[in-house]
Amino acid sequence: MKIEQQQLLEKARESLQAAQLLANNNLLAFATARAYYSMFYIAQAFLLGENLTFFSHSAVIAAFGKTFIKTKRLPVEYHRYLIDAQEQPTDADYSLTPNITSKKAQDIIEKAQRMLDFAQENIEAV
């Protein structure tokens, strides 16, 4: 594993930890945003293993799907998690009344944790 991949996975772990702290303090919109960023860093780490880097979120998500999901190298649900969570940072930062329930926040956090667990165990094998 490249050092940069390790750094991205560490960043993902810290972002997920922040998401849980925010959720525990009822800051649900911001918790979901941090969980999304955890997923985003994981996708970047996988892409970096293929020597692929992108600057926009949409490019990372598209390349992640094309490189790993369409080729069946990773479980399809991880791409869906990323796509579904993508709007969370925008909602958290710009919506005056984000509609995030505690259940939804925990669901996104749990999905990010599943992705992180998988990445930590499998990133070198993919």
Count of DSSP helices? 6
The largest pleated sheet is described as: none
Mean of pLDDT? 94
* Structural class based on helices, strands and sheet pairing: mainly alpha
String of helices and strands: HHHHHH
N-to-C terminal Cα separation, in Å?
11 Å
Shape: globular
CATH superfamily: Nucleotidyltransferases  domain 2
Compute the number of structural domains.
1
The CATH class is Mainly Alpha
Percentage beta strand: under 5%
CATH fold-level name: Four Helix Bundle (Hemerythrin (Met), subunit A)
Radius of gyration: 14 Å
Are there runs of 5+ residues with pLDDT below 50, and where? Answer: none
Give the total of beta strands. Answer: 0
Percentage of residues in helical conformation: over 70%
Description:
The protein contains 6 helices and no strands. The longest helix is centred in the N-terminal third of the chain and has 22 residues, at 3-24. It is an all-alpha fold and 126 residues long. It is 75% helix and 0% strand. The mean pLDDT is 94. Helix 1 (3-24) runs antiparallel to helix 6 (102-122), helix 2 (28-48) crosses helix 3 (57-69) and helix 2 (28-48) runs parallel beside helix 6. Keywords: DNA-binding. It comes from Aphanothece sacrum FPU1. One of its GO terms (molecular function) is DNA binding.
Quick take:
GO terms for molecular function: DNA binding. By secondary structure, the protein is mainly α.
